[in-house]
Design goal:
This protein has a five-stranded mixed sheet with strand order 1-3-4-5-2, with no helix packed on it. Helix content is 20%, strand content 29%. The chain is of the alpha+beta class and 114 residues long. It has a single domain, classed as Roll (Archaeosine Trna-guanine Transglycosylase, Chain: A, domain 4).
């Protein structure tokens, strides 16, 4: 995908921990899960162009869905950039310490715009 293909879209932003940037650029991380903040749900939609905060990287949102955190598949764990449920869950709990596996999360799939 090329940046010029999306010139008419409003650009939103999204935060990623610095350790995920190389995984995103290499294509090993193409999915992220987010918890709502308070009563505000995550506001991304398929087709959105999103700039990664603090980086000169834009991604295109290819899918957005809502599901319980515990419903993550092995394939999704790999798309998150992890090799196991334990590694994924440990990292997720560092960001969202009070999470429960039955809580709904927003699953955002994306691809880097080159």
């Amino acid at each position: 995908m090329k940046i010029g293909d999306f010139a008419d879209h409003e650009v939103k932003s999204i935060k990623f921990n610095k350790e995920f940037i190389p995984l995103i650029l290499s294509g090993k991380k193409t999915q992220t899960r987010r918890m709502p903040k308070g009563f505000k749900k995550v506001q991304y939609a398929k087709g959105d162009i999103v700039k990664i905060d603090g980086e000169d990287i834009k991604i295109s949102i290819t899918d957005v869905r809502h599901e319980a955190l515990g419903k993550i598949t092995n394939s999704d764990i790999l798309k998150e950039g992890f090799s196991s449920w334990d590694d994924f869950y440990d990292a997720f709990c560092l960001i969202y310490p009070n999470v429960c596996i039955i809580q709904d999360v927003t699953v955002i799939e994306f691809e880097v715009i080159k």
